[in-house]
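Quick check before the chapter quiz. The format below is the same one you will see on the exam, so make sure you can read both the input and the output lines.
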Amino acid sequence: MKRKQITAMITAMTMVLGITACGAGNVSAEQENKEQTEIESTLNISNNDEITWSYDSQSDSWTMSVTCAVANPELPDYQGVSVNVPGAYVKGIDTNGDGKEDITGKTYSEEVNGRLVIDDSAKIANTNGQTYTASTTPVIINTGAAGYSAQENQKASSSNAAYGYIDVACGNRGKQSTATDENGEEYYTGDAPLCLADQKNAIRFVKYNIILGNLPGNTEYFVSTGGSGGGAHAAMVAATSDNSDYFPYEVEAGAVGIYQNEDGTYSETIGSEDIEISDGVWGCVAYSPITSLQEADMAMAFEYYLDTDYEFNTDFQKKLAKYLSQEYMEYINDQNLSVSESAVDIDINGDGDKDDVVDLTIEYDGEKYADTNGYGGTYLTLYLKEFEKNLEWYLENLDYADDWTWFDSDGNALSDENVSQMTTEEKAQAFLEGRYAKGESGQNAGPGGRMPDGNGPDGNEMPGEKPDGIPDGNDSDGEKPEGAPAGSMPGGETSDGNAQDELVTSGMGVEVGTPDSGTTQSADSKTDSSSYSSYEEMLESYESDIASIEDGDKYGNNIVDLYNPINYIGDEDTESPTWTRIVMGASEGDMSLFASMNMQIAWINSGTDAKLEWQWDGGHVPSEIFGESLALYVDEMYGKYVEGAAEVTKAEAQLQTQNGTDTEATGTDISSWVSYEDGEVKFTLADAASYRSKGASKATPGFDVMDYGQETYEFGSLTQDARHFDKYVLKVLQEEAETLSELFNSEEK
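Here is the expected output.
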């Protein structure tokens, strides 16, 4: 692992950089070129008189006003950064440059210009049992980019202050961002990889100012987190850490700590000495990451197709799914995947131990695997056992559900006394039989779970109730509304009837075909395309678009390849994270679960501690439930990997003593297909496929959709807003043109 070590001696680093406590760098032209000197001076926050600090007594934290994270911003309102600092780490604000605090939390009355006076001796012991100081605490970088869209600059959240973390919010350019050139002509920008580059630049900015002593925090313990499109970027930040493919975009923006030399190589040092800044992270918690897009359509089609009873909207989509499933099998088998059973904690080959390294393949046998449309193999065995493992975890943790209503077999609510005496096994059986109504502790109440101040993990405010149109993640326990066929939800809606949270963050509805519309275009229609009059016209569009992408951008890069984390995990030019955690809703319809499993396998094989969670009944971007939280996991990893840190475990459950107040059970009886004995569950791959397809909300293809949808706008160009990008879809459209052309829009003929 290429982990760059940076000294924590602030005084020594300040001397090395030739920077005084009051700011301006005295770095000479002999030491550094003019451009580097200007960038480092500009992005040194002690030089910025516009920056203010505000104090919040409720959270006891200081928040820095938004400032630009780069020296050459294209869109300043979208390339900024803000930082929240726990009050314990701050003696006060130095307003006159003498190095002493003039304003403290006790004397604060309004936003203050000045510099933090950091208390290096202060400690925060959080509720999870971990202790941090100003120089040891992790830094949480929140990746926005919902739906791969632009994120306007915003102030950092105070949600993590109670845990002792530094919290960072950053803006980013995104799909459909526009700018004006020197001739006054408007052009499109924000396409891949600029959103990711902006987040990398924010990381460099914060690390730089930590090194200068302007901010508390530890440069070695950065954690990326986000949900949906933000989850995709959280994962991509971790997967592409410090990879040189992204350096041209960082340099172009004027990021600190990355400079191009005359010979075309890059330098990641600041000041006059060999002090390096990486754009990498130590860990990652990604909620329902919509990545990788390169394999997304194949994977989702394959997941649908495994269910023999799944009802595709049109014969064209069904046939396309069949061909894409074949393509996905070839794709996976070409990867030569294998995984250690001990690393995933699963006995994949069923020999009674977890000591083996198992080759992961998909095989086709129409007779042997008739109940899954002919597909089986060790890759799908791992997929199935991941499902079983996650349901087992759910059942084992039902004791943390302290506000549910439990019912007997006759549908009567249990007495408080009976509930207080329920064993874990009895709760598990009641759950399997659907004899419950969930309370708040079992609901998916927001992106990645609410923080203490009601904010989500992206730092954005989460009100007590989400706006209309934002899904709560409860897919009615995986059941669609009565009478609704699989995949026939209205465009832009999930199977529970709520607008897709990835796409409609404001709660406002949008029209299909617009840049902000859902990827479920045509999901409620028997029309395969409303934009192309013929199959040939559609095929020509795919061919032209993908050819232009493969020609490369101005740096010669295929921007779709740049947004595929699988291309970078384990690459020798990539700085691997120490740990990652991916949380998906097991019944969500916005992304195939295969994508998350593929990332886990890749990370494990690169030496990363990679955890995968498919939350039973969870929808898109599920909340943390049953005593879990982002903070708990960060603290656990800190205890596991940082010498001298406390070992942290989840607090014991407080057993429920009072039954809930619901009058009838709302759970789904799954006992007919799930067996449960001695804490272990068993069900078939066909049953898992059926469970998954009930939450389906997207047509086929669901990402590179015929008429341009959500993700195609991320791969546009300066002059073309959206482009088709999926070479695997194109391959099938070309190779199976004779069959598919006859079925295209046939329901309207």
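If your answer matched, good. The chain has two domains: 10-220+243-277, 293-735.
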